[in-house]
Amino acid sequence: MKIALCQTTVHKDWHKNLRNAERVIADAVKSKADMVVLPEMFICPYNKKAISAAAQPEGGEAWQAMSEAAAKNHVYLVAGSIPESADGHIYSTAYTFDREGRQIGKYRKMHMFDIDVEGGQYYSESSVITAGDEVCVVETEFGPIGVAICYDVRFPELFRLLAKRGAKAVVMPASFNRTTGPAHWELLMRARALDQEMYVLGCAAAGDLAGSYNGWGHSIAVDPWGSIMEELGEGPGMLMAAVDFAKADEVRSQIPVLQQLRTDIYEVCEKTVG
Ligand SMILES: NC(=O)CCC(=O)C(=O)O
């Protein structure tokens, strides 16, 4: 399976970002992508005002454009994240569409990026976004693929749940920053890949020093052995990762940590919410 990570620049005008997304999706398919992934909040700058202004319900203009782009290009599409308005809240939502443009997955970012690093990055995502509470795995003809978003990568429990649901690859729309990016991004992506012996593919927004958020870029593909397959720099670009689900099986059989878990002593289990 070929998965394209499209590291786009995010402009102020969300219509412009949608048109750009349509262009990069078509380009990725020309390069034979089976699935295209876009960055977290690819339609608007990553700040409270822009997120609130671009928020729209499921089925709204951005959803429609992405569904049509998936169908037109006959490709699976993880449409980054889009600010979704629902019940008086805004969620950071990753919709996944199949090759016919049907929605086959909906993931609302579960862990809020609320940090305050002395002399570095401050962010209070929960002041605008409401956290989701459902784990998401989408079915494709290649196998099940998990979806998570950016800060979620710091929570191994979520990745354990995704693996328990059968995921051998997890795709992650993301937008790390220049404080934690250089220190943690690669390390976290490799750690999660190795924990569950799965592919972890992070699609970040391009860095933009003139923008309101200090994005780090560096979209990355990590294999089930924990090796970096490829990593982009800060500018816009596309990374094409060849994902072979048999490789996850191979690593899992050679180092069978997932069978050696001491579930008699500890366990990660999913609680039913609501
Ligand atoms: N958009 C995000 O969730 C950013 C996460 C991040 O930068 C981190 O350090 O974690």
From TrEMBL:
The lineage of its organism: Bacteria, Bacillati, Bacillota, Clostridia, Lachnospirales. It comes from Coprococcus intestinihominis. Residues 1-245 form the CN hydrolase domain. One of its GO terms (molecular function) is hydrolase activity. It comes from the Bacteria. This is Carbon-nitrogen hydrolase family protein. Keywords: Hydrolase. PANTHER family: NITRILASE-RELATED, OMEGA-AMIDASE NIT2. InterPro entries: C-N_Hydrolase (IPR003010), C-N_Hydrolase_sf (IPR036526), Nit1/2_C-N_Hydrolase (IPR045254), UPF0012_CS (IPR001110). Belongs to the carbon-nitrogen hydrolase superfamily. NIT1/NIT2 family.
